[in-house]
Amino acid sequence: MKSFIRHLLVVLLALAGSSGIARAADPLPSWNDGPHKQAIVSFVEKVTTQGSPDFVPVDQRIATFDNDGTLWCEKPLPVQLYFALDRVKTLAPEHPEWKDQEPFASLLKGDLKTAAAGGEHAIVELLMATHAGMTTDDFEKITKDWIATAKHPKTDRLFTEMVYQPMLELLTYMRANGFKTFIVSGGGIAFMRPWAEKTYGIPPEQIVGSSIKTKFELQDGKPVLVRLPEVDFIDDKAGKPVGINEHIGRRPIAAFGNSDGDLEMLQYTGAGSGARFCLYVHHDDAVREYAYDRKDRLAKLDKGLDEAAAKGWTVVSMKDDWKRVFPSEP
Amino acid sequence: MKSFIRHLLVVLLALAGSSGIARAADPLPSWNDGPHKQAIVSFVEKVTTQGSPDFVPVDQRIATFDNDGTLWCEKPLPVQLYFALDRVKTLAPEHPEWKDQEPFASLLKGDLKTAAAGGEHAIVELLMATHAGMTTDDFEKITKDWIATAKHPKTDRLFTEMVYQPMLELLTYMRANGFKTFIVSGGGIAFMRPWAEKTYGIPPEQIVGSSIKTKFELQDGKPVLVRLPEVDFIDDKAGKPVGINEHIGRRPIAAFGNSDGDLEMLQYTGAGSGARFCLYVHHDDAVREYAYDRKDRLAKLDKGLDEAAAKGWTVVSMKDDWKRVFPSEP
Fold it and tell me: Residue B13: its chain A contacts at CB < 8 A?
């Protein structure tokens, strides 16, 4: 009986394959047909076709994605800065000294411009004051609670609804083809992990980001990790290949970004042997999202545009290549 | 036709299940029956049984394994030290100054005892001289070439054959039950990655270990990562929970070790909510392997034995619980 069933199963599975049960509909419905969509599909097909000279075994199908501006909206400000601002307001009663201390004084008055005048030093101070001093478990809860209700200042939609529908489809499409998808972001690793699995289908262990140091200790006999106000690693620019090597330990075969902060990740990815795919999302749609590139202050895409042209990387026009930008749009 | 086939498939798959095609033989054949094997199986069954109060969803089934002494033999010395010694011999012609410089002078004379007298400082110096200064790609090749032929000084077997057969079965068993298995070792992350996938079925991105810093640069226009002679992270003792948080971002539900260097990992794992499993491999088999615990110099199991007794962790006797130790044994 058993071997009869097994035999029948084999025959039927073969039949099922040839009769097209498994044939999928267009896996990228929010992408307009054209050379950029075609470039993605061609790459995925050639590295997954057994016998193709470009075939890549499943365990080497590593794809890395920047987050801010590549998977979700980073304008008018990166989402994590809104989180930090809200944390300042929440913590202010415990910090009366902030009334006279920058960047906190300006932030509490809602004057982001003066607060930002302190530059990188002010931002680091802001992050340390709002992201450190609690256990990793507590920080996870704080982040989860915040992201559940925090909204984009212009659209009044949840930040987690400000993700790019075409990129969600791309993540799903690549995973369906055996790719392991990773986020490699300049944003905080601990800020992204609590919501990225639900939002992108990317689990915590596949997220690479900037970090502060943590320390193991026993609190009332209970082992915890305490977040310290000390930078551990900045996962941006030349830091991205370093973070990739440390966390993944293999060179990706595909990488996706949207700014010069992703350039080294794309260079590192593109330089490996065998088939490689590098893609920039170009923010050129001022109507449906935001338009910015060479002169943007926080997320400049300048050297990257030149190198993409020189190396034949795919540069996606949000305006022309995407049928829709956000999931809630028709 | 299609829907008929699909219907038939469903029916046959159900039949196949009930008729026992999928029923496995004993998944842990090298383990003697007894309370320790039973503890492992009971834990895996309760966290994987839908509807059980201890059920754990697949994405949270994280299991972490120490490497040296837990997955493979670490006596008479940890394998990575033999690698470092061989590197010293290989590099000696380029370093005439080593003839008069410790720990190199003693190492080159084969006098490990005098070399080790320099303590931790000497070991760090040894590792930096032998593990840094090349690209990550070059180091991967060096490690792969070495491990392909390097043999255990006593058994004359390849080091990769000095892995514990019962632990290989345990890794396979846990993965078959939806666990993601990670190595969390004090050893070098870059030393383990080139061979751990083939040896243990654990891919590079699921290996956590000690690391030195790397730097991104363009060499003749080609993007590479250069290994710097500077410690980045020591993944041992209180560093293990830190490394777990940084790389995995979730508290494991099961952890496996063999020394006090694993104690904080087991504490951190055991203290989470829900079902938890902590296990120590106890080296008490001087005939088939080595016997060492409370007084060992490099891999002491002392505080860990007391805490295991106090907390009811599973302590596996290599002598009594394992039918065989190494794969090549009958």
Answer: 9
